[in-house]
Structures are given as structure tokens and as C-alpha cells.
Design goal:
With 151 residues, this protein is an all-alpha fold. It has helices at 2-14, 30-45, 48-56, 59-62, 67-72, 77-86, 94-102, 106-121, 127-150, and strands spanning 19-20, 28-29. Strands 1-2 form a two-stranded antiparallel sheet. The longest helix is centred in the C-terminal third of the chain and has 24 residues, at 127-150. The protein is globular.
Length: 151
């Protein structure tokens, strides 16, 4: 479990004082959401690297942390690659972001589905955001099924 501990410690240190305006309502630490997703990913998959990706998925977009920083800290290519896939580019629309994930790695698709499900469960999620999240989750579930059939 050291990998999970390291991921939580890294996310906690890098996301200090960051809150999320969407998930759970304004003012909730982003770490709460990331922890819920990480726990759900580990519970469903038993895969520590996937759980680490889930917990650290916002490092590249919300902090100054780079891929080179994580590589220097000894994080695997799989973990770093997962974070990269799950990082929405600055000019990338939400729709393009979801489609890109849907055409990529099955692990990233699975993590995003779990994240969307956890976000939908959040009490502070607006109806509009919840509806968009449900639509994105259905799309990714279909993509994951296609990926499984193709194997």
C-alpha cells in the first residue's frame, strides 16, 4: 500500500488549500473528491497504480507539478501516462476531452467513469453538470465495451 500512501501524500502536498467549485459545492477541498475516486478505483480494480492515477489525476492541470517532476520522484510510466491522459488541455473542450479519453487507454476510461459516477453522487453537483456527467459516463462505458469486444 506504500504506492497509495505516496500518491495521497503527493496530492495532499500539491493541492494544499485548493477547493473545487463544482464537486461537492464551493469550498470543499479538491482532495476530498480525489480521495473518493481513488478509494472507488482501488475497491473496484484492486490496482494500486490505477488508484494512484485517480488520486493524482489533477496534478498537471491544477498544480505546478510536471511529468518530469513525477519521473524524477520515481513514479512509473503507467502512472504518469494515466495522469497525462486524464489531464484536460487548456483549450480542449469538455466534449473533446471526453472523446479523447474514450479513444485512449482502458485504464483511463475506467478511472474517468468512476470519477464521473462519484461526481454524480456528490450532493453539490448542479443539475446541468450532473446531466453532462451522466452523458459522458454513458459514452465512456460504451467505449470501454467496444474496447473489451475488440480484445
Amino acid at each position: 500500500m506504500a504506492l497509495i500512501d505516496d500518491a495521497v501524500a503527493r496530492a495532499a502536498a500539491d493541492h494544499v488549500d485548493q477547493t473545487d467549485a463544482v464537486i461537492g459545492g464551493p469550498g470543499n477541498p479538491i482532495l476530498y473528491h480525489l480521495m473518493r475516486v481513488g478509494i472507488a478505483v482501488f475497491t473496484e480494480t484492486g490496482d494500486e497504480e490505477m488508484a494512484a492515477v485517480a488520486v493524482m489525476q489533477r496534478l498537471y492541470s491544477d498544480t505546478a507539478t510536471t511529468d518530469a517532476d513525477l519521473e524524477a520522484a520515481g513514479w512509473s510510466a503507467r502512472v504518469r501516462g494515466g495522469i497525462t491522459i486524464l489531464t484536460q488541455g487548456g483549450a480542449e473542450t469538455r466534449k473533446a476531452y471526453i472523446k479523447r479519453i474514450g479513444n485512449d487507454d482502458p485504464d483511463a476510461i475506467h478511472i474517468k467513469i468512476i470519477e464521473l459516477r462519484e461526481a454524480i453522487r456528490s450532493l453539490g453537483l448542479s443539475t446541468n453538470v450532473r446531466d453532462k456527467s451522466q452523458k459522458a459516463m454513458r459514452y465512456l462505458q460504451e467505449q470501454l465495451m467496444i474496447e473489451t469486444i475488440d480484445d
